[in-house]
Design a protein that fits this description.
The protein folds into three domains: 60 residues, no CATH class; 256 residues, Aspartate Aminotransferase, domain 2; 115 residues, Aspartate Aminotransferase, domain 1. The strands form three sheets. The chain has a seven-stranded mixed beta sheet with strand order 1-7-6-5-4-2-3, sandwiched between helices. It has a four-stranded antiparallel beta sheet with strand order 10-11-13-12. Strands 8-9 form a two-stranded antiparallel ribbon. It starts with 18 loop residues before the first helix and ends in a 5-residue tail after the last helix. By secondary structure, it is an alpha/beta fold. Helix content is 36%, strand content 14%. Helix 7 links the parallel strand 2 and strand 3. The chain is globular.
Length: 463
């Protein structure tokens, strides 16, 4: 029997396929290709398809060398095994998979404790597909709470121009005016004064970021809260804070325990994080918590049957696998507080050491040093004219390193930087190799007559 795949106008005949690999007759195997626009006529052996698709995926970058992403790129084999066992479980079917729902509930409780909820029993929260969905849910709650005040006018949301793009999407989708505080000079994120200056009676909330994706810095949540407290004393306006802790909410509890940014501040109504970033889980899980039920309007919450009772649910998605929630619980159990502290401290140690070594090379100036998020940004010094950050990013890619280069937002579009994210699995040894490669290519870059690419066509950064 001869199996054919990819027939039709999109199936380009090309040689070079291995007849043994293809599992078909040699005459046809030499011309085998994958369908691009429509299904082939017949099935193929599973091992053949596995190898063909795997071959194409070799063209992707190496995830472990991707210093652009915040997303977890390594987990233990035991976590792989657990996720494989849970991938067919649908998280939405809490009555059919009650123990998976129970693991989700435990994770919410653990986060409530980490984030100093005044009454953990009163906290309400849920898992999501990531921090972007979590932000959408938090924004919906803020808007609904504001709408109950009956104020005329268009609702607005105050945030720095450094917010993740999901917040701009939220404002567009839910018809909220985004009040983006622009960067200015060496101020790259939201400050207390700027936050208050942009608030009025139609402000549904202020978004404070614990760990900016642009440079890894924490926004001053406590200062913003104090400024909003003072605003309420003067005007009566009670404006809540949502903390976007996509990365920092899983760093600060372990490395900065005395930093007040969470539910210790009464004005913080909700917090989100990415389980698949510094929560140390593969992509596909985020978390959002509200300090109490008053912070999440009840009409947004639906109830499902759970172990003979009702369980509240609030989400934008419907079906999704339970694997990531199981993996999050595995990670919480596996590491405990001390394990998380050790992992995050190792990431910060690599980041601060690497930042210092890059600064010592000569051509570069640090914007941040990796001492908040284990993330830092740097740019070329003004006197460097032979190359720019985009040249460095392109040349590092030749060795497999994915280091993003990008310009900052409005008011600082003149500033272009490189950013390095240090995650679990990026070791001092790998950092040594990065420094060696960077040191090796600098003499070649310095011999250029000028930058070889335009920033608008060579940027490697997307939120």
């Amino acid at each position: 029997m001869v199996l054919h795949a990819g027939k039709g106008k999109d199936a380009t005949r090309r040689g070079g396929s291995n007849p043994m690999l293809a599992g078909t007759d040699p005459a046809y195997a030499a011309n085998l290709t994958l369908p691009h626009n429509h299904l082939g006529d017949d099935p193929l052996p599973p091992d053949t398809v596995l190898q063909l698709v795997r071959d194409e995926l070799l063209l992707d970058g190496n995830a472990r060398l991707n210093l652009a992403t915040f997303v977890t790129t390594w987990m233990e084999p035991q976590a792989h095994e657990l996720m494989a066992e849970c991938v067919a479980k649908n998280m939405i079917d809490k009555d059919e998979y009650p123990q998976t729902a129970e693991l989700e509930r435990r994770c919410v409780n653990i986060l409530a404790d980490l984030w100093h909820a005044p009454d953990p029993a009163a906290v309400i929260g849920c898992s999501t597909t990531g921090s972007s969905e979590a932000c959408m849910l938090a924004g919906m709650a803020l808007k609904r709470r504001w709408s109950k005040l009956g104020r005329p006018g268009r609702p607005n949301l105050v945030m720095g121009a450094n917010v993740q793009v999901c917040w701009e999407k939220f404002c567009e989708y839910w018809e909220v005016e985004p009040r983006l505080v622009p960067m200015e000079g060496d101020r790259f994120h939201l400050t207390a004064d700027e936050a208050v200056a942009h608030c009025d009676e139609n402000t549904i909330g202020v978004v404070a970021i614990l760990g900016s994706t642009f440079d890894g810095s924490y926004e001053p949540v406590a200062e913003i809260a104090a400024a909003l407290d003072a605003l309420q004393d003067r005007t009566g306006l009670d404006i809540p804070i949502h903390v976007d802790g996509a990365s920092g909410a899983m760093i600060a509890p372990f490395l900065d325990p005395d930093l007040e940014w969470d539910f210790r501040l009464p004005r913080v109504a909700s917090i989100n994080t990415s389980g698949h970033k510094y929560g140390l889980v593969y992509p596909g899980v985020g978390w959002v918590l509200w300090r109490d039920r008053a912070a999440l309007p009840s009409e947004l919450v639906f109830n499902v049957n759970y172990l003979g009772g009702n369980m509240p649910t609030f989400a934008l998605n419907f079906s999704r696998p339970g694997a990531e929630v199981a993996a999050q619980y595995y990670t919480f159990v596996r590491l405990g507080r001390e394990g998380f502290r050790a992992v995050q401290q190792a990431c910060r140690d690599v980041a601060t050491s690497l930042a210092e070594r890059i600064a010592s090379l000569g051509p570069f100036r640090l914007l941040t040093a990796g001492d908040q998020l284990p993330v830092f940004a740097f740019t070329t010094k003004p006197e460097i004219t032979a190359f720019d950050v985009f040249c460095v990013s392109r040349r590092l890619r030749e060795r497999g390193w994915l280091v993003p280069a990008y310009t900052f937002p409005e008011n600082r579009t003149d500033l272009a930087v490189l950013r390095i994210v240090c995650r679990n699995g990026f070791t001092h040894d790998l950092a040594d190799l990065l420094i060696q490669d960077l040191t090796r290519l600098l003499p070649e870059l310095e011999q250029q007559s000028g930058p070889l690419a335009k920033p608008e066509t060579s940027t490697a950064f997307h939120h």
